[in-house]
Amino acid sequence: MSYHNPYTPPRKSATFDDYTLAEIRRAAATGIYDIRGAGTKRKVPHFDDLLFLGASISRYPLEGYREKCDTTVTLGTRFAKKPITLKTPITIAGMSFGALSGPAKEALGRGATIAGTSTTTGDGGMTDEERGHSQTLVYQYLPSRYGMNPRDLRRADAIEVVVGQGAKPGGGGMLLGQKISDRVAEMRTLPKGIDQRSACRHPDWTGPDDLEIKILELREITDWEKPIYVKVGGARPYYDTALAVKAGADVVVLDGMQGGTAATQDVFIENVGMPTLACIRPAVQALQDLGMHRKVQLIISGGIRSGADVAKALALGADAVAIGTAALVALGDNDPRWEDEYRKLGTTAGAYDDWHEGKDPAGITTQDPELMKRLDPIAAGRRLANYLKVMTLEAQTIARACGKNHLHNLEPEDLCALTIEASAMAQVPLAGTSWIPGRGAF
Ligand SMILES: Cc1cc2nc3c(=O)[nH]c(=O)nc-3n(C[C@H](O)[C@H](O)[C@H](O)COP(=O)(O)O)c2cc1C
């Protein structure tokens, strides 16, 4: 006979929580794994776990309204004949045409241009609207080579060789048939309406030496003018950064596991890669060991949302950051004004991540002509520009409070950590102590 204690409420398992149970049932019912967009949804150590110390007696703050705090950054100073200078260190990350609609790409270009920063193409090639509206456009050279052509390499202001992404280091892209419209199919030389998987590695590489050869080829095609970036997902940041530098990169783009994606397996997003916070110091250490810190610039991405995040990434040694998801939200993605339609899709504003399905009520992650019309690229570009401006002002405010007349003068010494994990990852002392766990061991 079982004994039921009337004082004990039914007890759910932390291991088999409601979400896990639902996922087991979903897998059992369908036999397919879950695909979705966005970045990791689990809580991992992040910039929120760091705080700035600010100036007091031992440090001298700058006056907000009168004393200058420079925000400019120049990328590509190592080899490129034409490095690019941006007014703010917040750049727009590569997001593919195909994943995003034409008007969304245009809006990104418009917003970035008003803010004086760069935007980036993505898998699937360069569209005329984003080239036309982006003062500074970085052209991605991806494993898939979809939409790649030498003409567009020359039309770009910089080239980003994509080795990997933080949401899926070691994995390739996905674009489901619903989103392969006539235009997307033509740009990618693919049949319309058929699911497509982008390659997880470049077809003509077997190792770092091939990356070096490829970078040389790209430099020759573009007459050594354009900065060449190498983008990697956060997996082994010390060695990947060192190898990218050795292969001749002007800029290393490092994308942590919180980084968004248009579509990949949920199991990948949640279980592969390292938190952004854990990637920065090893990458900076690699640059310092090679005498290349500030000579090869480091762009950090993956979960950047505010000027505080920007300032923290820069204080840890990055030269600039890139944003994807936050830029889409600024354009109007996941906006509660479409709540009724999110409900019809079985979700809610703020949780909608089925970006691969092409049904985005906000008209951003879709190729549906009717949904696309909902996004006004001029108004959306203006919203993005406002957001970039606010983030830049926030980062400046923090830098001034730390006594810095340039965002790049922020340093690890300006920070402390709220948790032991963040302290170990960011290599800054736990608040109230001088203790950094595991110092020196990358
Ligand atoms: C809709 C979408 C499409 C993306 N497409 C690409 C792509 O084509 N190539 C690429 O290198 N990264 C792609 N990414 C990743 C971003 O470049 C960037 O690494 C990531 O979004 C940064 O993290 P965040 O979204 O938290 O800012 C995509 C991200 C999103 C959200």
Task: From the alpha carbons, calculate the radius of gyration and give it in angstroms.
Answer: 22 Å
Task: Tell me about the largest β-sheet.
Answer: 8 strands, parallel
Report the strand count: 16
Q: What class do helices, strands and sheet pairing give?
A: alpha/beta
Helical proportion, percent range: 25-40%
Shape: globular
Amino-to-carboxy terminus distance = 56 Å
Low-confidence stretches: none
Task: Give the SSE map.
Blueprint: H1 18-30, E1 35-36, E2 50-52, E3 73-75, E4 84-86, E5 90-92, H2 102-115, E6 118-120, H3 128-133, E7 136-141, H4 150-155, E8 158-162, E9 174-175, H5 182-188, E10 196-197, H6 208-221, E11 228-233, H7 237-246, E12 251-255, E13 264-265, H8 266-271, H9 276-289, E14 297-301, H10 307-315, E15 320-323, H11 325-331, H12 339-344, H13 369-372, H14 377-401, E16 415-417, H15 420-426
Parallel strand pairs: 5-15, 6-7, 7-8, 8-11, 11-12, 12-14, 14-15
Antiparallel strand pairs: 1-13, 2-16, 3-4, 9-10
Helix pairs in contact: 2-14, 7-9, 9-15, 10-14, 11-14
Task: Describe this entry's structure for a reader.
The protein has one domain: TIM Barrel (Alpha-Beta Barrel), CATH 3.20.20.70. 33% of the residues lie in helices and 13% in strands. The chain has 15 helices and 16 strands. The chain has helices at residues 18-30, 102-115, 128-133, 150-155, 182-188, 208-221, 237-246, 266-271, 276-289, 307-315, 325-331, 339-344, 369-372, 377-401, 420-426; strands at 35-36, 50-52, 73-75, 84-86, 90-92, 118-120, 136-141, 158-162, 174-175, 196-197, 228-233, 251-255, 264-265, 297-301, 320-323, 415-417. Helix 7 crosses helix 9. The mean pLDDT is 95. The structure holds flavin mononucleotide. Flavin mononucleotide binds at residues 37, 39, 93-96, 99-100, 122-123, 140, 162, 165-166, 231, 255, 258-262, 301-304, 323-326, 355, 365.
